[in-house]
Structure prediction request, 201 residues.
Amino acid sequence: MGAMSPIAPTTHLLYLHGFRSSPMSMKAQKMAQWVQQGHPQVHWWCPQLPPSPQAAMDLVCQGTLDWPKAQTVVIGSSLGGFYAQCYAAATGCRAVLLNPAVQPARDLAHHVGWQQAWHDPSESFYFQPDYVDQLTRLQITAQATRPETFAIVAKGDEVLSWEEMVSHLPQARIKLLEGSDHALSDFDEHRSDILDFLNLA
Prediction:
């Protein structure tokens, strides 16, 4: 059996934020800063995702059509972690998941209706019943294949079940935190582990 080929340095980095969140999230801002400071040549994209899951995936796939997938890594937090699983399964790129949603159709069925944007309370959107159906359909994509994945999962997550996250990621390399929270308020402590996995160019 031959030696494994070395992982290509990451030249393109996609960050997908969570439900009601935005590119202004703490983790997205910190990641952008880490990339800019140490690896300014890396192509960084953190789009504002539309409320419709299918529209979000279409936006991301269209926006990365010409990206070299072997040198692309997707990072996703919460609902963005679910989208990241879908994207990685569709493209074969590697993924970093931060307290990822693994059953979003079930969890967000309770959130149909008007929602306030987390970082700008003056912004709101209507989460439609059809969006739950879209998540159900995307669930199949998310489980299709499992490219190399690094997940940070907090037992202290007050929104999602850490046991469920772990059980849905059987082949992932998981950093399981005894405490922390859904937002990963201790995000700085995971910088070196994330950057090591990313292998930025």
Remarks:
- The first strand starts at residue 12 and ends at 16.
- The beta strands are 12-16, 43-45, 72-77, 94-98, 113-116, 124-127, 149-154, 173-177.
- DSSP finds seven helices and eight strands in the chain.
